[in-house]
Amino acid sequence: MRFVIQPVWNWPLVVVTIIVMLTVLLWTYPRRVRHLSPGWRRVLIGLRLISALILIVAMLRPSIQISETDHQSSRLTVLLDQSRSMSTPDGTGDLTRREVLVQLVEENGETLEAFRDEVEVQFLDFATELLSSSSLKSTADGEYTAIGQTIDGLREDSSQDRLIGAILMSDGAQRAGGEADVDPLAAARRFAEQLGVPIHTVTVGTSDVSGSGIDLAIEDMQLDQSVTFERKTVPVHLQVKLNGASGKEVRVRLLIEDRTGVVDGESGEFREIPLSVDATPFRDLRTDKNSMTIPVELSFVAERAGEYKIAAEVVPDPGEVKVNNNRRETLITVRKGGLKVAYFDVPRPEQKFLRRLNDTAKIQVDTQVVLSGRFAQETNIDPDLFAPAKYDVFIIGDVPASVFQKDGNNLLRELALRVNEGAGLIMIGGLHNFGAGGYADTPLATLLPVKMSPEEKIRVDQENPDGHLQREVKFLPTVAGEDHYLMRLSGSQNDAAWRRLPLLGGANRLERKSGAVEVLAETETGDPLLLATDTGRARVLALGVDETWKWHLRGFQAEHQRFWQQLILWLAHKEFDSDQPVWVRVEPRSYAPHMPVVIEFGAQDESGEAIPDADYEVEVLLPSGETLKVTPQRFGDHGIGEFLETEAPGDYWVRVSAKHNGSALGLLASTRFVVDSRDIEMDNPAADPGLMSEIASVSGGSVVPPENFGEFLMRLLDEGIPPELKRYRTINLWDGWPPLILFVTLMSAEWVLRKKQGLV
Q1: Does the pLDDT at position 624 exceed 70?
Q2: pTM, rounded to two decimals
């Protein structure tokens, strides 16, 4: 038994914290009780000191480590991968990986038998779960490779046994989805920490499968936007992988679903998209390499409003055996009509690039150019721009408030009325807006989500460095922003997509004015950059930057346009674009098999206000025709549900109905999502020796080449099995109910005594 201290921080920081805590306590507390009698002073100071000591103990995290001797019989477990990827014939003489593995065990049968005098040798097959193996079979028919879940299962089964080690024999590639997708390295760490025994790894198979025949695949498919308008060109970005296609011409094409005469719950047939002036729906590729991944951009024109499936396909080669990875599908929503945006700004690059929204979606941006500096007051703004229902969204750039207030006519009052009626408003970064532009004294002060003061106002020929971040900044989503519609650049790698964008040259210092304001984007040091709030029927944003045009110039045109289009749609309440009382959304629209799907849904009244206490029924129609119920949960003013039964590829239709106070709310809402026809086990059956090496490393085991497996067993046998095993058990002295109860009791007793003495 030994006493162990593991402080919560490094020792210098802990020591400084303890000294500061005790110094403050002993310097300030006696002064507060000096008018009391000596007895009361000692009691109160003593209670406070003991409470502080309990906190110090918690910081030091002391524990007692007890060693125990285990005399049980020993066991060596051999884990044999039986998943379908083990049927890959990349062994010597075209043996499959499973056959190589079985051959290794049989060739070393005598050595393994010699172990049985000292230790029990246990053979377990695995794929998604552990299976007892009485005889070694060469067939590999397990559905998926779940190495992490397998290691966790062995750890739980062996918690009361004397396991001396495990030998993991596999191709080493984790290929599992859903709940079975447990991190193998985390599982190996848990295994080693709890059982104190190593995992030795034997990797079979090769990481290069390019020579296994021709295989054409769509590895990734991304739309610039999942929502667009009629008759607009939609770019589609693909990653196309060509194996064994050297010297061949391969066609990559887009297909669109024909929903003529098709009802909800049924899928339409795909048809080819014809080439046109505005669309490039196919491309022919040729490579002289045997294995290559090529980025491809195609496009199509959305002709009619509705929800459609879009497929990207590499036309199968006559000699191709595996064709289920040749196609990827997703969904796009096409809407009627467009939005009108009024944009007020001085001449600067941001203005030029925002006007390009007119080219990428059916959004009409009307720009009012405002003269800069001392000439700003010479700008005449047409009052008709603020007429009721003329514009859906208003953008204010680097424009002082005084420009809107001339000859006794306050156009900001009209703008505030339009916002209160439901128009969206965004103020973007600049030198002479927000507080510096004098907006704290205008009707917009109550609408904008930032703190502003009249004292911040400056003249148009002045600058206010203190009101800006004078450095380059990254525009990054916050935790709240990561899942928000405004901040979605990618369905699967959203944070990485934002981090790839170029730095921006500074930003306004913004501070949210209340807890009701959401911060959706920030700098890498946590300075707010995008603040959002709902104001009555309207939505209002404050954006602290004005150089998003740098994204466009440096190769991120699609990200720039998607971000701004989403801002406009959200401000105009068009991200759902439904006049019906009930809505439902699934984002992203396509998933790999076994991935969990989050369904969002809600209800609204006639004025568009959310009904937070509505009751929902949610069901999902599977590709097989079976219907499954989803348990709805409340999430803010709407609801969410998680759907996990995504094994089969195909279309999944989500249907939501709602009631309020016992009465049905309109028609049911429906949408769908797509589960890819990918085979995560066999689409890329390459072995992963790197992961096997890491598993051995974190658990204290050895990496054993297959050709050295016999020597490894002989070495284990020569070293012998210890007749007894030392296990270590840790008893924490700081983490539990007794310290917490003691701390609460002491603080409560001190408070009661202080109250009796009139100190509270």
Answers
A1: yes
A2: 0.53
